[in-house]
Amino acid sequence: MHPEQLRARPQRVGRSRAAKTAAAKTHDQSPTHPNRTSWRTNRFARTPTGSLDSPVSTTLTQTHDERPELSGPNTDYDPVEVTPLKSEEVEAARDAALAAIAGAADLDALKQVRLDHAGDRSPLALANREIGALPPQARKEAGQRIGQARGAVNQAIAARQAVLEVEHEERMLVEETVDVTLPTDRARPGGRHPITLQSELIADIFVAMGWEIAEGPVVEAEWLNFDALNLGPDHPARTLQDTFWTEPVENHVVLRTQTSPVQARTMLTRKPPIYVACPGRVFRTDEYDATHSPMFHQVEGLVVDEGITMAHLKGSLDHLASQLFGDGIDTRFRPSYFPFTEPSAEVDVRCFVCRGVDSASCRTCRGEGWIEWGGCGVVNPRVLVACGVDPDVYTGFAFGMGIDRSFMFRHDLEDLRPLFEGDVRFSAAFGTEI
Ligand code: DAH
After folding, report:
1. Is the domain of 229 the same as that of 112?
2. Are 342 and 383 within 8 A, CB to CB?
3. Treating both helix axes as pointing N-terminal to C-terminal, what angle do 107-118 and 87-103 enclose, rounded to 10 degrees?
4. Are residues 344 and 277 in the same domain?
5. I need a labelling partner for 348 at 20 to 30 A (CA). Which of 65, 238, 247, 375 fits?
6. Owning domain of residue 8
């Protein structure tokens, strides 16, 4: 340690090295300086080799007058020599800051400029700290100079900040603008098929009446599709419904030609009372044209309970018709034949366009006032027996109609093919929903 640093002159805590160096330079460092305390006379001074001297007796025996004089106030200390406080330095730091602020292109850049030129480690902040090292008479002037420079920098930052914020805001408004007139190349969300929606609407109508929805497989046992429903092996109806057989034929498995096998499945697995509706796909070897398709949709209805009559059947179908086609739309029965019902009927629904008034010019019903809808009847006791239901206790009714047909009437559709060709533009027109 240099003896100079051991002087008894009060030292400021935290003075920078620059200040110390400057202060040191202003003093005579010759060993003969009268203010200097010899390392030999300081009790705690280190020897040149670094070991602590023990408090030697010569020091202890010295009288007050014999002790070396302590240094007084440092009157010849020249603050002008503190480099960071020189006016050229301060001006240069201020100008550099102002140039950087003016050059900050965006808010991020300005943030960095603020750190570099107005932050704790910036040249002006460091110079500001040096002010404290000056004697009181020099502090004021230096303080003013630095304060003005810092003020100018802070003002410039604030002004630039305001400008950049406005710019940012305006840029955001432009960048985030959504041009709703631009065409979109986004994949449109898919939709549910109109027939699916129609099937669900029909199912909902039955559920609202307290019925259940039953389902069966589309690949069905021949026995359930025909035999259980009173169509014997040679029954002409078996060939009337042009059947898709699966191979090997000996397995007696078909693509179901109707939803009626779900009747049999339901009676075989549940005990009456039974109130079920069964919507689903069916298959026949039909040509594909405006009114036929090898795959189409039916909904089957089956009720088995005590005391069920044709009147219950009529009431149920009238309700379904009015729910699907509009208030006041009812049905009529025409005598017919189905192996699984006795008596059987064809069911027509009142034309919901002309409602039977001036029907001659009606395109929808072609002058009939009625539209063919499906088949129905009282469940044949032979079917009840085949499916394990006691015909002496229970009676029932059943019906079946085309869902696609119902959809076509409802929407005045003359060709059913668009229903099966998967063009979303067609589906979307019917209000497909996710
Ligand atoms: N399954 C018949 C068909 O596809 C329709 C049908 C008629 C169903 C009378 C029935 C019914 O349940 O009782 O043509």
Report:
1. no
2. no
3. 170
4. yes
5. 238
6. 3-69+77-172
Contact between 23 and 29 (Cβ < 8 Å): no
Pocket test for ligand 1, best of 338, 383, 405 (most atoms within 8 A of CB): 338
Looking at the fold, whether 115 and 158 belong to one and the same domain comes out as yes
Reported as a pLDDT band with limits 50, 70 and 90, residue 423 is confident
Determine the distance separating the centroid of ligand 1 and the alpha carbon of 399, expressed in angstroms.
6
- How many domains, the chain? 2
The Cβ of residue 428 has, within 10 Å, a number of other Cβ atoms equal to: 12
Residues 317 and 210 in one domain: yes
Higher per-residue pLDDT: 45 or 149: 149
Considering the domain architecture, whether residues 147 and 202 belong to the same structural domain is answered as no
**Would you say residue 424 lies in a domain?**
yes
CB 269 within 8 A of CB 295: no
Last residue of a domain, one of 142, 172, 202: 172
Ligand 1 midpoint to CA 298 (Å):
9
Cα dihedral value 387, 388, 394, 398, nearest 10: -10
For ligand 1, mutation pick of 254, 258, 382 (most atoms within 8 Å of CB)? 258
The protein residue with its alpha carbon nearest to ligand 1, atom 12, reads 399
pLDDT at 410: 85
Same domain, 168 and 198: no
Do both 158 and 290 map to the same domain?
A: no
| Token output for 155 | 């003002």
Per the model's pLDDT, the better-predicted residue between 51 and 394 turns out to be 394
Cα(391) to ligand 1 centroid in Å equals 20
Query: Which amino acid, one-letter code, is at 368?
Result: E
In this structure, the answer to whether residues 149 and 230 fall within a common structural domain is no
Residue 177, domain member (yes or no): no
Q: What is the pLDDT of residues 301-326, one digit of tens each?
A: 999 999 999 999 999 999 999 999 99
Q: Who lines ligand 1 at CB under 6 A?
A: 258, 260, 300, 338, 340-341, 374-377, 398-400
Cis amide prior to 248 (ω within 30 degrees):
yes
